[in-house]
Specification:
The complex is a heterodimer of chains A (514) and B (474). Chain A is mainly α and 514 residues long. Chain A has one domain. Chain A has 21 helices and two strands. A two-stranded antiparallel sheet of chain A has the order 1-2. In chain A, a hairpin with a 4-residue loop joins strand 1 and strand 2. Chain B has a two-stranded antiparallel sheet. The longest helix of chain B has 32 residues. The mean pLDDT of chain B is 84. The chains are: A mainly alpha (514), B mainly alpha (474). Chains A and B meet through helix 5, helix 6, helix 7 and helix 21 of A and helix 16, helix 17, helix 18 and helix 20 of B.
Chain lengths: 514, 474
């Protein structure tokens, strides 16, 4: 523990805000208060960002306090290049989410902003935890406010969507808890840096990888587990969709990077072909589905499946460029898709429809709106000069480096992205105007919450070096230790079945010991 | 610490005094219209006494009655649970006025029996304490106005109870015949494998049946949903929580005999697995809230076995901690049920509709307790489950851990369903519920806060459980 506990502050400030919220007067005060909390949080993140050591591979801003010492649980926080940018993204999104729900949400204001604040602190907690149980605590704690965001403020089909979201994600992560416990028993600690320094037998890695990968793949979501995503996105209110797309989905890929690769390196290598295959399926399948959608939100939701496919593809390339690309893509997808969902929310407030056919030909009447929409769409299809291009290009470079065919198979996904985004853009900008004539263009509030994201799109697109430098040291370190550990691990004689049904063996060992 | 015998069992003595005072009130008021509003306060005093008695140690009554970390931990939990129950039941709408004093007399005798159960370390004493706690319950369950379902529930409970305790006593005869002692400390040194002592192994299994019945572990669970449904809400809140503490304390003591790999241990693990799976699947189809909670307690009985079969001090501590967590979260859940049911009728899932709008605070308490029952962080249910599966991993029953994890996934649906009704459905046309007062909100809030506190900072309470566990299995 050294210096000011900035990570704890970032986590607990929204919580304290949430605790004060019920005592405020009704009405706009709630919105203003949450906005102030968000802005203060963002200001606090400025020294956090500027003091970050770019060339340090290990964890920074570490905090360590005993939590339940009898059980080896610690309150341990820290940041490295893998989690740094995600925390910044989460922090920045809080005030933007408040602004984009300013007029969208009109009922049960206090509860809504309460959920937003809880979400923010839980999300930061997920990325900052260095204790496995603390991680799991935040990981699950974030489900409840998200569930309520969809279930209470969602669209007409919100009950079905929220239930599906909750069941899918919680069911997936129950086995993650078993894996966590297994690691703690095997590695002797819940402290993640300690666990990362140990090597585990292959059979152990085999099963824990499967348990962890299930939880993370559902969250990402990867191909066979993606069906909760469109339902949740379509029904969620704008702020819910933004948080879902920008932060929640990243937790899955973050899990792969933080846990699967360092803790189960040999199993990750073993399952890599399989993971690559379903990543490519996600890219292409998500792209095709997006091509056929009539609902704008659904289209963007399916495009997320495709984009996240690029992220997992990059991760399982196991080379610097691939993982760099994956991390960039995580950040960029958060910025771009978050922006797109905000725009859909903005137009929904005008036309009360998310169908493409109800929002045709807006280019003439809402030029500022279409400017932002065009920018985010181009970014979404990875147009050179925008942020997503950097990520996607790096992933493809990594893929071609590893195997020509993997790269070649991912290319159609990029083409599909161009096809569905340009189709949407064309209809919105130049379609036969239906109802758009009477709409007013963006107001100042909408400018304020869209402009920061637009600036990031262009800034990262043109000057990605700084972002890349934050992550390089950590990625290189992780990949090196992963390679070293994979070589050490040799398959033991025990079969996985014996390991899981080991009652007889344990008794034998106890008797031998006596 | 030089303490007299009298001081050692102060919580029990106080509880007994409470029962005797109630008995005197019955005698003094033949028309039974006594004012009982002092009772919760009197019950609260015992929490303080039990908390003061926490560090005591001693062995009384020819070594049959042990005051140790485990017993004092459970006595505190029982005292706290009894306080909440009396608070909950004191304005019971379905209880006829002329039976109120009798009701609370029997209730306090039952709690006294459970406190005795926490300390007994000799099989005959255990049996007697068990009966003391059960007999008064047989009468209480039927006390629900003129409701015939309550009578049916009472009959079911007494029939199952009588059969289970008879089996238990029969098993005891086997143990005594083969192992020649009835003291747990001496029994712990004997062999319990089927190959070496078949009679003793069978006897122990039969003896434990009585406690599985109390705990509602599969296949001794059949009474559970019916009794919850039939008895009044307030009685169900008691039956669902405190007797389970009594069963677990004995099982934790007996678990010193259960080494991993023994036939009995494996059988208990299998019962545990079946109990979780059956309870959760059966709960999925229920509409009556108390039936849901009934099957949920069958499932939770299964989770508790995780710690019992691990054969470690950590496992015993985890089981003890989990049952206390179970007590708190169930009391919170029943608190909401009792407050919502204005005239004491059973609540259906639909009756929770729109609770978020009608009673936002009770809806919050319900959500906290339901998420805790699922085992979702940051609630106590999560910490309890984490301790259980950590203690059970790598002691030969990894499959049971996996079954428990999968079962958590199954159970999400019906717990979430309660929250879903409360938060997203519309109110029923004729919402049944009196407007609960500020006091009821406060106590509901206290229970919800306890659930969250045990989830975020479990270590102070868990430390007591761990010390108790280490005394049993050093």
């Amino acid at each position: 523990m050294n210096g000011f506990p900035i990570l704890s502050t970032l986590i607990f400030l929204p919580l304290i805000g949430a605790a004060i919220l019920p005592f405020l007067p009704r009405g706009n005060a709630v919105r203003v208060f949450t906005l102030v909390v968000g802005v203060v949080e963002t200001i606090l993140a400025i020294p956090f960002a500027s003091d970050f050591h770019l060339d340090m591979a290990g964890f920074q801003y570490t905090e360590l306090l005993p939590w339940a010492p009898q059980w080896g649980l610690n309150y341990a926080l820290g940041v490295d290049g893998i989690s740094f940018l995600m925390i910044l993204l989460t922090v920045v999104l809080l005030p933007l989410c408040v602004l984009c729900s300013w007029s969208y949400i009109s009922s049960r204001l206090k509860e809504f902003h309460f959920c937003l604040l809880l979400m923010t602190s839980a999300c930061i907690g997920v990325f900052a935890s260095l204790d496995f149980v603390l991680f799991y605590l935040f990981w699950e704690a974030m489900l409840v406010p998200m569930y309520l965001l969809i279930a209470v403020w969602g669209g007409p089909d919100r009950r079905y969507a929220s239930l599906k979201f909750f069941l899918y994600t919680l069911a997936g992560s129950t086995l993650l808890l078993v894996a966590i416990v297994a690691y703690a028993i095997h590695g002797g600690s819940f402290y993640i840096p300690d666990l990362m320094n140990k090597t585990y037998p292959f059979n152990f890695q085999f099963w824990t990888f499967l348990a962890m990968a299930l939880a993370f793949a559902i969250k990402v979501p990867m191909f066979p587990f993606h069906t909760w995503l469109p339902a949740a996105h379509v029904e969620a209110p704008t702020a819910g969709s933004v948080l879902l797309a920008s932060v929640l989905l990243k937790m899955g890929t973050y899990g792969f990077l933080r846990f699967c690769l360092p803790l189960a390196p040999a199993a990750s290598q073993y399952f890599a072909p399989f993971m690559i295959a379903i990543s490519i399926i996600s890219i292409i399948y998500g792209g095709f589905l997006a091509l056929g959608q009539k609902d704008m939100k659904k289209l963007i939701a399916y495009s997320s499946v495709g984009h996240m496919g690029f992220v997992t593809l990059g991760i399982f390339m196991f080379n610097l460029r691939g993982v760099e690309g994956a991390l960039m893509q995580m950040l960029n997808h958060g910025i771009t898709t978050g922006g797109l969902f905000m725009l859909v929310g903005a137009i929904y407030e005008r036309s009360h429809s998310r169908q493409i056919k109800d929002n045709l030909g807006l280019g003439k009447y809402l030029p500022a709106y279409m400017f932002f929409f065009g920018l985010f769409s181009l970014s979404s299809l990875a147009f050179p000069g925008t942020n997503s291009f950097v990520g996607e290009a790096l992933v493809l470079i990594g893929a071609f480096k590893r195997n020509l065919w993997v790269g070649a198979l991912a290319i159609p996904g990029a083409l599909l992205a161009a096809a569905y985004m340009l189709r949407l853009l064309q209809k919105l900008a130049w379609g036969q105007p239906s109802t758009g004539k009477s709409f007013v263009d963006l107001n100042a509030r909408e400018w304020i919450y869209l402009a920061p994201l637009a600036i990031f799109v262009i800034y990262i697109g043109l000057a990605p070096t700084r972002a890349l430098r934050t992550m390089d040291a950590s990625i290189t370190h992780m990949l090196d230790s992963m390679r070293a550990k994979t070589e050490v691990v040799q398959s033991t004689t025990k079969t996985p079945q014996q390991l899981s049904f080991n009652a007889a063996k344990i008794v034998q060992e106890v008797r031998d010991a006596d | 610490m030089p303490t007299s015998t009298f001081l050692l069992c102060l919580p029990e003595l106080y509880q007994m005094a409470l029962a005797l005072v109630l008995f005197a009130v019955i005698l003094a008021n033949p028309n039974q219209r006594a004012n009982l509003s002092w009772l919760p306060a009197a019950a609260a005093v015992n929490i303080v006494l039990a908390a003061c008695a926490l560090p005591l140690k001693g062995l009384l009554f020819y070594d049959a009655y042990q005051i140790d970390g485990l017993s004092q931990f459970f006595k505190l939990a029982i005292a706290a649970g009894f306080f909440i129950t009396t608070l909950n039941a004191v304005r019971q709408p379905t209880l006829e006025t002329d039976k109120r004093t009798d009701y609370f007399f029997l209730l306090s005798v039952s709690a006294l029996g459970l406190m005795l159960l926490a300390s007994t370390v000799e099989l005959v004493s255990i049996y007697i304490a068990l009966e003391a706690s059960s007999y008064s319950l047989y009468a209480i369950i039927a006390l629900r106005g003129k409701d015939r379902r309550a009578a049916e529930a009472g009959i079911k409970y007494i029939m199952f109870g009588a059969a289970a305790t008879a089996i238990s006593l029969y098993g005891f005869s086997y143990i005594l015949a083969t192992q020649h002692t009835s003291y747990i400390s001496e029994l712990a040194a004997k062999s319990w494998s089927f190959a070496e002592a078949p009679g003793a192994a069978i006897g122990l299994m039969l003896f434990l049946a009585g406690f599985f019945y109390k705990l509602a572990l599969f296949p001794f669970h059949f009474w559970c949903p019916d009794v919850y449904q039939g008895s009044s809400n307030e009685t169900a809140a008691y039956v669902a929580t405190l007797p389970k503490l009594g069963a677990v304390v004995v099982l934790v003591r007996m678990a010193a005999l259960l080494k991993p790999g023994l036939e009995i241990t494996t059988l208990i693990a299998v019962f545990g697995a079946l109990s979780m799976t059956y309870g959760n699947f059966a709960a999925l189809a229920q509409k009556d809230l108390k039936r849901i909670l009934g099957y949920s307690s069958v499932a939770h009985a299964g989770y508790v076995t995780l710690g019992l079969v691990s054969g470690t001090a950590q496992g015993l501590a985890a089981s003890a901690f989990y049952i206390v967590v179970y007590l708190v979260m169930n009391l919170a859940c029943f608190w909401v049920v009792c407050r919502l049911s204005g005239n004491g009728e059973n609540l259906q899932l639909e009756d929770l509709g729109g609770l978020f709008k009608r009673q936002p605070f009770l809806a919050f308490v319900l959500a906290v307790s339901a998420f805790s029952l699922v085992g979702l962080p940051p609630t106590a249910g999560f910490m309890g489950k984490l301790f259980l599966i950590t203690s059970a991993w790598n002691h030969g029953y990894n499959w049971l851990v996996i079954v428990a994890a999968v079962n958590t996934a199954i159970s999400i649906y019906y717990y979430l369903n309660m929250v879903r009704h409360a938060y997203t459905k519309e109110s029923p046309e004729y919402p049944i519920a009196a407007k609960p007062g500020a006091a009821s909100a406060v106590w509901g809030g206290v229970l919800a806060a306890a659930v969250l506190f045990l989830g975020v900072l479990p270590s102070p309470v868990f430390q007591w459980a761990l010390t108790a566990g280490k005394q049993l299995l050093p």
